[in-house]
Specification:
This protein has about 625 residues and is α/β, with parallel strands linked by helices. The chain folds into five domains: about 190 residues, Rossmann fold; about 160 residues, 3-Layer(aba) Sandwich (Rossmann fold), CATH 3.40.50.300; about 100 residues, Arc Repressor Mutant, subunit A (Orthogonal Bundle); about 70 residues; about 60 residues, Orthogonal Bundle (Arc Repressor Mutant, subunit A), CATH 1.10.10.10. The protein contains 27 helices and 21 strands. The protein has a seven-stranded parallel sheet, with helices on both faces. Strands 8-13-12-9-11-10 form a six-stranded parallel sheet, sandwiched between helices. Helix 2 runs parallel beside helix 3 and helix 13 packs antiparallel against helix 22. The longest helix is centred in the C-terminal third of the chain and has 23 residues. The chain is globular and about 85 Å long.
Length: about 625
């Protein structure tokens, strides 16, 4: 069956992008390929179709379990057999799966790079008839990539296991340095590079500096009733912004990596089905999202890098219709971004300190490498050693990325609680046992729906609010459970640590110090690049982004904020706008810029420019309350 027939049968449409067809034909010629396709560019078809045209299976290395499972479910729904080898599978399940790959008709094996490090799995892979090896999100192999993962450096073991099998490395965003790393670190043999333009003719990149981000957000959403993604930098903020939008009449949901699987699925399905057209999310919401009619992607915090920004913005307008990528910022968001960068740039001395404290905390002797996993609570650890929780978390993640330890976070393992009695019985209980009254009242005030269903709780948070120790709260909750008032499912920990090297303190960290310094430099460079992009109001946004990825163009897009401002500049009637501003200020003691915009119903950019010119000409002045009045 030819590639086009395969596409028609399984993907329900009848045409390739030209680059896809070229990539598939090159893979079928048994050549190594590096493919740079934009977000939504059909990367998965580039390895799935060649696999279906050949005997044997395709091994796909992918960084996220959720992304792997989405791909497997999609293939299984099409009647194509695929399996994701995750930690959910027991040793016996893995043996059965490999037997099915040897003797059955499974065509796709999805693996994380970490899972690939198992010698047992390597030996099993060696026995398979592998027709293609696909590396998804291949930029992760490079220290210059925006999601560098040291585990990707070990993928080249597949070249040893199957030296004649072609590789295809896929990514949506990669600079020339990243491409060079992909070539060398995967031992690719004279790879053919396919690079689609990063230009998106239907996507308008727009950046607005605004005093009130929430007000501007409301303005944008009022004009738009299409599916929207709003990106924020913190988990807490996703809920805060979503609650705000719901309170002013917009139907929104929120998503971040700390939600339970059930809540993630609920938020995702509500958005996909457009029950909630707006989703507020961290960048945990992204890879594998396949919704073609997203009209707007809004960043209300500065994106981590230009690579992240292009990937996230690219989730808008996949249907070819005009769409918008918006960044809203002010001095406060710039300051918050700089603090985030500082928190992520961890110096060697701090990492040495954290590594030493971890070994002390978990009672590991010098020269020892324990084989067991350790339960670990970050909040308790930071409280014990009086550490900044964000910097400590980032230091531990660096130790994880450098292969010193494995930091396994499982956010589904959280404590749950449900009241088994009614309000009246709870009241009687608190009268009989007044020592538990404060805790019970706090639970009832803080956690809604606690009588109807199991609700996740955080004992550390409760302890802090009630000025008690966490262990005191746990003892109390267990006592209340024994009194048949609540159902309490205690989870002692939501993370585990496995040490991968022998404890040698400074020697351990000195061995990775060069890599850490290099990574810190890269982070600073990426932060500088995104801030420069935001502050550059002279060059077309599209040209700026293309230049970052070494793609030259001198054709203005015509639809970004800079191009539109240029068009409007010639039509800008300063005198008319100034007269209207001065007229309304005659009737008011003072107005903010937002109030002036609301009263005039003119172009906001023109109004703000006119206000600035009137200030310079001393026609108006700024009051102590940051409002404007006539002089």
């Amino acid at each position: 069956m030819k590639a086009l027939e395969i596409l028609q049968k399984y993907w329900k449409h009848n045409s390739f992008r030209e680059s896809q067809e070229d990539i598939i034909n090159t893979v079928l010629e048994n050549k190594d390929v590096i493919a740079l396709l934009p977000t939504g560019g059909g990367k998965s078809a580039c390895y799935q179709i060649p696999t279906l045209l050949n005997k044997g299976i395709c091994i796909v290395i992918s960084p996220l379990i959720a992304l792997m499972q989405d791909q497997v479910n999609s293939l299984n729904d099409k009647g194509l057999k695929a399996i994701a080898m995750t930690s959910k599978l027991s040793d016996n399940d893995i043996i059965i799966a490999f037997d099915n790959m040897l003797y059955g008709n499974i065509k796709f094996l999805y693996l994380s790079p970490e899972k690939l490090q198992s010698e047992f799995i390597q030996q099993k892979i060696k026995q398979l008839n592998v027709n293609l090896i696909a590396i998804d999100e291949a930029h992760c192999i490079s220290e210059w990539g925006h999601d560098f993962r040291p585990s990707y450096l070990q993928i080249n073991i597949l070249r040893e296991l199957h030296p004649k099998t072609p590789f295809i490395a896929l990514t949506a965003t990669a600079t020339d340095k990243v491409i060079d790393d992909i070539k060398s670190l995967l031992f690719l043999k004279k790879p053919i590079i396919f690079k689609e333009t990063f230009s998106r003719k239907n996507l308008a990149y727009q950046i607005f500096k605004t005093e009130n981000i929430y007000y501007k957000l409301k303005q944008i959403l009022t004009k738009n009733n299409s599916p929207t993604i709003i990106y924020t930098s913190t988990r807490k903020k996703t809920k805060v912004v979503s609650d705000y939008l719901n309170s002013i009449g917009f139907n929104s949901t929120f998503y971040h990596g700390g939600l339970t699987v059930k809540n993630k699925e609920l938020a995702f399905n509500n958005w996909i089905s457009e029950k909630s057209k707006i989703i507020v999310a961290t960048n945990a919401f992204g890879m594998g999202i396949d919704k073609s009619n997203v009209k707007i992607v809004i960043h209300i915090d500065i994106p981590n890098s230009i690579e992240n920004y292009v990937q996230e913005a690219g989730r808008a307008g996949r249907n070819g219709q005009k769409s918008f990528s918006v960044i809203l910022y002010n001095e406060s968001t710039i300051n918050d971004f700089n603090k985030r960068v500082d928190a992520n740039v961890i110096n060697i001395d701090f990492i040495k300190k954290i590594y030493k404290y971890l070994n002390q905390h978990l009672f590991i002797s010098k020269g020892e490498q324990p084989l067991n996993k350790f339960k670990f609570n970050l909040q308790d650890f930071c409280a014990k050693y009086k550490l900044n929780i964000i910097k400590t978390y980032n230091a531990i993640k660096i130790l994880d990325k450098e292969g010193v330890l494995f930091y396994e976070q499982n956010y589904n393992k959280i404590s749950m609680i449900k009241f088994k009695t009614n309000n009246e019985q709870v009241l009687n209980y608190t009268n009989r046992y007044p020592k538990n009254k404060e805790l019970i009242q706090f639970l009832l005030r803080t956690y809604g729906g606690i009588f109807e269903s199991r609700i996740p709780i955080n004992e550390t948070y409760i302890a802090r609010k009630l000025h008690k120790l966490k262990k005191e709260i746990i003892i109390q909750l267990r006592q209340i459970e024994r009194d048949f008032i609540i159902e309490y499912m205690y989870q002692s920990n939501n993370t585990e640590i496995t040490f991968l090297v022998m404890r040698e303190d400074n020697i351990t960290i000195n061995n990775i110090s060069k890599s850490i310094k290099q990574r810190n430099l890269i982070k600073k460079n990426k932060a500088t690049s995104i801030i420069s992009y935001i502050n550059n109001n002279d060059s077309c946004r599209n040209i700026q982004l293309l230049s970052y990825f070494n793609e030259k163009s001198d054709i203005n897009c015509g639809i970004c904020d800079i191009c539109i401002n240029r068009k409007n500049k010639g039509n800008f009637d300063f005198k008319n706008t100034a007269d209207k501003i001065l007229l309304i200020l005659n009737n008011h003691k003072g107005l903010s810029s937002k109030e002036i915009v609301n009263l005039l119903h003119l172009n906001e950019v023109e109004i703000l420019k006119t206000i600035q010119l009137l200030l310079e000409k001393n026609k108006i002045s700024l009051t102590k309350t940051n409002s404007y009045k006539k002089t």
